[in-house]
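Example for tutorial group B:
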């Protein structure tokens, strides 16, 4: 395939055959000679002082090598505040928190011994809701000053508030005075589990001077940095090898099991492996935090938005983790892709005695989208306007200043709204009606805006081997989004090497160049730019070597469409795919280059109070989805009839991959809207299993979907590309929720919307 046609080509996934044939090596598949196995004794108490830990029975169990508690390694860590011990020290803050770790000859022995650890607690009042947290009937953390703060988070002394973020734009009082219609609402989004196929797993092999960890780590350099701090290694002594990742969605973005196995391996001098089961995955890992919104929005009688205030509370669980970043990202996007001259967002992260609320696909964007899109529908209804027409009157367009103070460019949201609506024939049938069978039909629409984390840096290495094949080394982890397919497409676009001759190497932090993290839908944008830079360097090196072979100056050598030619001798030609046989690379210096892309220089630090800035992010992602649903008023059952999606992806490097991302996201968002929610009572999770926690599968995706890729090229993206990993899920749940509200002619103010909510809607 030539250089020009490779960009925009739907080539098959390069890792597809390996995974379909069962040859992919996931975390649980990795074993080392002489390894031992670990298991965790988890807290049965959601909040309490640890009075005593009795380990005698566990230590005496045949095959047990060691048992450790928090006091053995009293170091805390965290993304923005070091508030989280590896194993609980003196106090437990959520049910499922590790209180002891056992290492033994087999996993069975380790698990049986872990059950023999006896812990006595002095219970404390349980903070079981955001309201409890605000009331401060108990403090989850007594003194925020006890912890090191790395940045971004702003705890409030003597409260359960670990972070506050404000976004102030214009004058909201003035804006509401100009409004002819004002709506005020509350909205709630439930707690979700990542529910990935592969549970958390880690394998560590430690010596006094070196540590190797095998893990499906989403952000290996972040994990390496944390481990080095915790155990006192230099970074060059810690190596993170990333296995295949069986799903992540943010749940594997921070250290979880890695510090535990590292400590145990260092203690016993043998490799140690720890694999969580599904119950542990629910109770002891990470979640999408539940959140509650209080919103007030105003508009003129002709449908122009004038002002909006938002107060949002995030239940970030017992520790901060990524909560402050969710608060920050969601705060910037909380007003949606709309031109609102006056707004005030006030966001709070609260700690409770729940499992940890952390990074989840979209970093809060799905939640804020649910809230602001319910508001848009409510205002449109109050003004007797069509919801699509109302949105088109207010969406951001190029040259407009958004609520963060940034002037928009390459904003394709208006086209996305039009295409998403057209994809479900919005104008051809009513927005709500009753079928001859008495079922309720309704249509809903929702659009969104999302930023990408800025500033950040990505580096990639590209090497041409002696046979002309190419290796790419990138720490952008492939979690299913297709990094190992897209990056070779960028290589081919510059060099012309056949895609089949290009591979992306396994991530190993000791040799793979630095990448900040695989989050924020940034891999194609950042790694793509880095690979393009490296390949330009490779092309220059090859011109020199070809010129040397042909005995002409490098300046006379051209490379186009994968063909080397010579300006002074038309008979000299060489296909780059034959370069390994040509002798050009024989006994020469390595053809290798490093490319780097960073956004530090474009980032404009925001005002400390208002967070206004001329450049919030390198990339705004936008899109829209529309849904048609059928509701059975007798049972409350919701059937999705069709979904229409339109996403501004800048430029589709691999259209098939983009479509697959969106298709999967729609099914995921369906679960957010209708079935998924972790339910806590008195700090105890009531549905921590895959029977009671309902995750939709493709068997549930028996509806029509039509997807449009809108290409509004980003001026700094590689070939104009933007991100699509997270955005696909952002508008799905709010579009479905708005469709159900239209069908039932009742505004639902929370997700998921369950059958009982529909049956008893009038009682609220």
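The residue assignment follows.
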């Amino acid at each position: 395939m030539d250089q020009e046609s490779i960009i925009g080509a739907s080539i098959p996934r390069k890792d597809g055959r390996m995974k379909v044939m069962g040859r992919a090596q996931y975390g649980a598949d990795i074993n080392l000679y002489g390894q031992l196995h670990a298991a965790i004794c988890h807290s049965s108490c959601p909040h309490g002082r640890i009075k005593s830990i009795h380990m005698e029975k566990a230590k005496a169990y045949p095959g047990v090598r060691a048992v450790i508690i928090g006091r053995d390694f009293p170091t805390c860590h965290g993304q923005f505040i070091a508030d989280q011990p590896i194993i609980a020290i003196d106090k437990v803050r959520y049910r499922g928190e590790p209180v002891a770790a056992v290492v033994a000859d087999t996993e069975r022995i380790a698990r049986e011994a872990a059950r023999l650890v006896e812990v006595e607690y002095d219970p404390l009042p349980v903070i079981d809701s955001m309201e409890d947290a605000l009331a401060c009937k108990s403090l989850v953390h007594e003194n925020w000053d006890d912890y090191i703060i790395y940045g971004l988070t702003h705890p409030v002394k003597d409260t359960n508030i670990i972070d506050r973020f404000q976004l102030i734009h214009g004058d909201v009082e003035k804006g509401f005075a100009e409004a002819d219609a004002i709506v005020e609402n509350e909205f709630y989004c439930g707690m979700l589990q990542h529910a990935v196929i592969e549970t958390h797993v880690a394998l560590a092999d430690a010596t006094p001077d070196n540590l190797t960890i095998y893990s499906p780590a989403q952000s290996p350099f972040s994990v390496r940095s944390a481990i080095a701090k915790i155990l006192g290694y230099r970074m060059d002594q810690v190596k993170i090898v990333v296995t295949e990742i069986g799903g992540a969605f943010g749940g594997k973005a921070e250290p979880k099991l890695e510090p535990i196995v590292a400590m145990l391996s260092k203690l016993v001098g043998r490799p140690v492996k720890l694999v969580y089961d599904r119950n542990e995955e629910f109770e002891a890992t990470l979640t999408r935090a539940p959140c509650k919104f209080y919103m007030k929005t105003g508009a003129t009688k002709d449908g122009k938005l004038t002002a909006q205030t938002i107060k949002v509370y995030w239940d970030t669980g017992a520790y901060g983790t990524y909560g402050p970043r969710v608060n920050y990202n969601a705060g910037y996007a909380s007003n949606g892709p709309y031109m609102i001259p006056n707004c005030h967002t006030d966001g709070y992260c609260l700690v409770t005695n729940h499992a940890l609320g952390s990074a989840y696909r979209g970093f809060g964007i799905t939640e804020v989208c649910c809230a602001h899109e319910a508001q848009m529908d409510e205002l449109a209804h109050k003004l007797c306007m069509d919801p699509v027409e109302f949105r088109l009157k207010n969406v951001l367009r190029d040259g407009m200043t958004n609520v963060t103070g940034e002037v928009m460019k390459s904003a394709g949201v208006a086209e996305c709204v039009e295409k998403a609506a057209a994809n479900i024939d919005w104008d051809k049938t009513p927005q709500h009606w009753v079928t001859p069978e008495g079922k309720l039909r309704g249509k809903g629409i929702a659009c969104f805006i999302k930023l990408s984390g800025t500033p950040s840096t990505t580096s990639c290495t590209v090497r041409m081997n002696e046979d002309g094949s190419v290796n790419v080394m990138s720490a952008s982890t492939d979690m299913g989004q297709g990094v190992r397919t897209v990056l070779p497409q960028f290589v081919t676009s510059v060099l012309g090497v056949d895609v089949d001759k290009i591979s992306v190497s396994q991530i190993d932090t000791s040799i793979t160049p630095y990448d900040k993290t695989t989050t924020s839908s940034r891999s194609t944008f950042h790694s793509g730019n880095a690979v393009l830079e490296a390949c330009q360097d490779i092309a220059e090196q090859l011109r020199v070597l070809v010129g040397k072979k042909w005995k002409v100056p490098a300046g006379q050598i051209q490379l186009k469409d994968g063909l080397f030619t010579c300006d002074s001798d038309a008979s000299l030609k060489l296909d780059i795919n034959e370069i390994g046989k040509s002798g050009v690379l024989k006994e020469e210096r390595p053809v290798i280059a490093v490319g780097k892309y960073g956004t530090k220089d474009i980032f404009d630090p925001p005002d400390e109070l208002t967070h206004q800035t001329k450049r919030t992010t390198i990339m705004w992602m936008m899109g829209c989805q529309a849904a048609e649903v059928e509701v059975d008023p007798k049972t409350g059952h919701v059937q999705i009839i069709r979904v229409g999606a339109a996403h501004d992806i800048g430029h589709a490097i691999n259209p098939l991959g983009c479509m697959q991302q969106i298709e999967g996201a729609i099914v995921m968002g369906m679960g957010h809207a209708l079935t998924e929610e972790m339910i806590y009572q008195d700090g105890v999770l009531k549905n921590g299993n895959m029977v009671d926690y309902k995750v939709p599968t493709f068997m549930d995706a028996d509806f029509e979907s039509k997807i449009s890729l809108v290409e509004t090229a980003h001026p700094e993206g590689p070939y104009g590309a933007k991100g699509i990993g997270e955005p696909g899920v952002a508008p799905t749940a709010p579009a479905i929720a708005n469709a159900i509200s239209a069908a039932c002619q009742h505004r639902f103010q929370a997700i998921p919307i369950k059958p009982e909510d529909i049956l008893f809607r009038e009682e609220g």
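The domain at 35-124+200-275 is CATH 3.90.1170.50 (Aldehyde Oxidoreductase; domain 3). Compare this with the pattern of hydrophobic and polar residues in the output above.
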